[in-house]
Amino acid sequence: MAILVTGACGFIGAWVVKNLCERNLPVVLTDLKRDGARLSVLVPEWEALPFVEGDITEPNFLVKVAEQFSVERIIHLAAWQIPLCRKDPVGGAMVNVIGTLRVFEATKQLQGQIRRVVYASSVAVFSPPEMYAQTPIPENVPLKPVTHYGAFKVCNELCANAYWHESKIPSAGLRPHTVYGFGRDVGVTADITTALKAIVLRQPFRIRFGGFVDLQYAADVAEAFVRCALADLDGAKVYNLRGTPMSVPDIVEVMAEIEPEARNLLSFDPTPLPLVFNLDDNALQGDVGPIEITPVEQGFRETLEIFRRLRDLGRLAMPESL
Question: What is the pLDDT of residues 154-169, one digit of tens each?
Answer without folding.
Answer: 999 999 999 999 999 9
